[in-house]
Amino acid sequence: MRRHLLWAVPLTLTVVSGALNAAVLPDDDQTASVGAARTVAGVITGLVFLVSLMATLVLGIVAMVEAHRADRARAAATAAAHQASARDAARHGWDGAAYLLRHLTAGLFPAPVTIWGLVLRPGEEAHLVLPATYSRYYGGDSGYTHVNGFFMGSLPFVAAGYALTAIGNTARRNAAFAEAAQRWREQQTVQVVVTNQRLICQTWQSWLTFDYAGVRAFYPEPENWSLVIDFPDTPPLRLSGANSPAIAAYVTWALHGVQGLRSHPALAPLRAAAQLPS
After folding, report:
1. CA distance 273 to 96
2. How many Cα atoms sit within 13 Å of 148 on the Cβ side?
3. pLDDT tens profile 212-232
4. How much is the pTM?
């Protein structure tokens, strides 16, 4: 409110002084003394009008600069809060993964978690339910629509038409090739249910199942906050984020047992955090 008053007050004074200046200007029918008085009053109100107008412009610019600084300060504070929250989440995720690794290595397992809505298999137990960033690695469709133009008219018109058509075809072809490139797609935050038989991800579309028995290759990268699982019949799965080290530790145990927890090179930083020998 105070920031708006900086320019609102002189703006009001500008309007009022301008109206008074127009009202006190001398008329041809007035006497010389009255006309002189009104001329003096007109000069005074005119000066007030000019000064207040300049003040309005200057203070308006000052208010805009202050507003911009305030917006930048709020944005910086919000970014700092997000960074602090991310650091806290990463620290808790890392400590939780080290705790899980230590207990799995000792033969201790998390208590089963009750999952409502999702039906587990006979003998299946859910041990962790964690949010993570989900993505899949595959290429897109390389097809595109090739346009064949037909133009009639003057030679420059026809030449320009064919040139523009060729440029459009080239742009569509390049866009199709870029879309077809292999890359991580479908990035989204999902709930990951970690069971003793599989990973289950609740994506935007549906629940997706990734059985440990179908894994062809497994690449845990706790230090990079991610893990990648490759399958023979579906695109590779990547899970990343603050909870990915814990998921990586559990999947390592599910695929390689306690020996994998004790010797997998990628888990060395987690073993150090858990105070286990590498």
Report:
1. 10
2. 0
3. 999 999 999 999 999 999 999
4. 0.66
